[in-house]
Amino acid sequence: MAEAEEPGLSDQYPTASPWPLFVALGLTLSEIGVFIGLFPVAVFGLILFGGSVAGILTESGYAERPWPTLLGVGTVLTVLAAALALWQIPLADIALSNVGEGPLLTRLVAVAVAGLVMAAMGSVASLLEQTAA
Helix %, strand %, coil % for the chain, to 5? Predict the structure, then answer.
C-alpha cells in the first residue's frame, strides 16, 4: 500500500511559511503607530511589513533576492510621504523643528524614515551581495 501524502505539503516546503504572520503583524503595528502617532512603533511596523513582503515574494519565487523589493517598497513609502507632505502641509511648516508639533507632519516623517531605512538596507545589502560575488 502506498504511503499517504499530506495534502498541501511538498518536499520543498515541509511546513507552512511564517511570512504571512509577519506581514499581518507589520501592517498592524504600522497602522497603530501611524494613526495613534507612536513614531517608533510606526517605523518598526513599516520596516517589518516591507521586509516581510520582500521575504514572501522571494520565498514564492516572484523575486530572486529580497533586496530589490525592499529598496522598491522603501522608495515608494518615501515618495508617498514626501508627496503627501507637500500636498497637505504648507511649505513654510515643513521643517525638522516642527516634527512633533503637528500630528500629520510627525506621521509622515515616520513613514519617510521607515522608507529611507528600508531603501538604505536594500541598497547596502545589494551592494554587499554584488561585491561578495
Answer: 75, 0, 25
124 C-beta neighbours (distance < 10 Å), count: 12
**Residuewise pLDDT in 10s, the chain (133 residues):** 555 555 555 566 567 788 889 999 999 999 999 888 888 999 999 999 999 999 999 998 999 999 999 999 999 999 999 999 889 888 877 777 777 777 888 888 899 999 999 999 999 988 888 888 7
CA 49 vs CA 20, 52, 103: distances in Å: 10, 5, 22
Which set of grid coordinates corresponds to residue 65? 533576492
